[in-house]
Amino acid sequence: TYSDYAAMLADPQVEAVVIATADAFHVPLTKQAIAAGKHVLVEKPMGVTVEECAELAQLVKASGLTLQVGYMKRFDPGLEFVHDFAQKELGQRLAFKSCYHDSIYRYTMTDNLQVIPVASPQALRPEGNPKADKRRYFMLTHGSHLVDTARYLGGEIERVNARLVERFGAYCWYIAVDFADGSVGHLDLIVAVRGDWREDFQLEAEHGNAAGKIHLPWFHKTSEVEVFSTKDGLFRRPLGEDAHTYKRQIEGFADTILTGAPQLGANVDDGAEGVRILVAIS
């Protein structure tokens, strides 16, 4: 263990670091790690401004090191199946829509699934409360997943047009999307709904479609997805037996570093583009 970040980075036995601090520290700490020659898995969002993410992207590419952003949903077996099936079977995309509805009951559910946290009195925390600005916090925390899933399954996003309504302590964003390939989309983010957690998507394409329900991540259960192809007239519903997405993203990160395996997780360009879209929505 280390009580000093610089001392850890100076240790030649340390090959890679995971950065899971408050959002504002992601880029500064990642830059220090890259400068020390370490591979980085940095939590989402990669940064909080377009400019700092663009600068980081240049540094990472010049270093030749691996940077992966913690969009762990890309390691959900159901979403992986849809992503690959759409690339091979569905042809041109027509439309994509998805929603991310956090629940007022979510933290009770999460607390029942997680270990009880133990905090040190010496723990360093950023000044102020990063959750005080609700619009900013909800967009960076939840909107980042919504946007990355849309990019992962729907393709590059060219334009967004967002509306926001705030009532009774709840926030609702409705976002119209133009994808780079000419297809259209709709994303909606609500925090928090007076009901169950809901995260789902639907993709309509030239040779079929795909739809899915994504579970609360801490259940570690694969998404319930179903795809249909006009080529054979069949529906398919995969079952992913290992859906611990947090574990799988670490394994994927390590495989890329140790064996040169293709990077299945979000790379530095994905991280920068995600922040650009979040800023545009805001």
Fold and architecture overview:
This protein is of the alpha/beta class. Helix content is 36%, strand content 27%. The protein has helices spanning 5-10, 26-35, 50-63, 77-89, 106-113, 134-154, 245-259, 268-281; strands at 16-19, 39-42, 67-69, 93-103, 157-167, 170-179, 184-193, 198-205, 208-213, 224-229, 234-236. The strands form 2 sheets. It has an 8-stranded mixed sheet, with helices on one face. α2 (26-35) packs parallel to α3, α3 packs antiparallel against α8 and α6 (134-154) packs across α8. The longest helix is centred in the middle third of the chain and has 21 residues, at 134-154.
- Give the structural class: alpha/beta
Q: What is the averaged pLDDT score?
A: 96
* SSE topology string: HEHEHEHEHHEEEEEEEHH
**Cα radius of gyration in angstroms:** 19 Å
Strands of the widest sheet, in order across it, are 5-6-7-4-8-9-10-11
Task: Tally the beta strands.
Answer: 11
Strand content: 25-35%
